Amino acid sequence: MTENARRTFLRIVTGIPILGGAVLAASAILRYFKPTMVGGPKGLVAPPDEAGSSIQAVASLSELTQPWDFKEFIYIRKSVEYSSRKIQGAKIPGFVVRVPDEFTDPKDPKSKFVVVQRICPHLGCTFNFVKSPEELSGGYNYKPPAPTHPYFACPCHLSVYDPTRKQEVALQGALPGKVVSGPAPRPPRTMTFDIKDGQILITGTEGGGVG
């Protein structure tokens, strides 16, 4: 091996770690600015990261034909995860309840239904849909006024919500599920929905944690 060839070989050998370190540093910088980037450099020109959305059918109208018919369901809420997986899903329990016509707007078919997250705003417990006034009195320390009807009720700290009444919430307006007993600071968080082809479709959820 000539002297020039030996020098060239040594430059290549010593330059490989430097080049590798530069590539790793560039990758770290790119992932700092775009954590969900996949697919190599092409990921830099991909659309901006956005929260995922999911339209999910949770009940059919044929299941909710009579006043106080209800159905419990699990909605998968998707959001950005800052990794190569991009999207993570959270399972949110919910209730859809058909309320009597006297509590609805004849011009709005959606007003026949109350759709809420089944998570108590007090401390995040899972609440129930209670039809029995005796159960409300004995199990939840709430004696409903006559004429009685079902309520949402939390078994943990005995918060009770009236699905036929609304309560003002800051920046949200009037929401169904007025607190009528217990320590809950507000009504249950809501879910947006549409009605299409005989199905109730959840289109999104009110954000926020407990309280």
Automatic annotation (TrEMBL):
InterPro entries, per the entry: Rieske_2Fe-2S, Rieske_2Fe-2S_sf, Rieske_Fe-S_prot
Domain of life: Bacteria
Gene Ontology MF annotations: 2 iron, 2 sulfur cluster binding; metal ion binding
Residues covered by the Rieske domain: 107-202
Keyword field contains ATP-binding: no
Membrane-traversing stretches: 12-33
Name of protein: Rieske domain-containing protein
Lineage of the organism: Bacteria, Pseudomonadati, Acidobacteriota, Holophagae, Holophagales
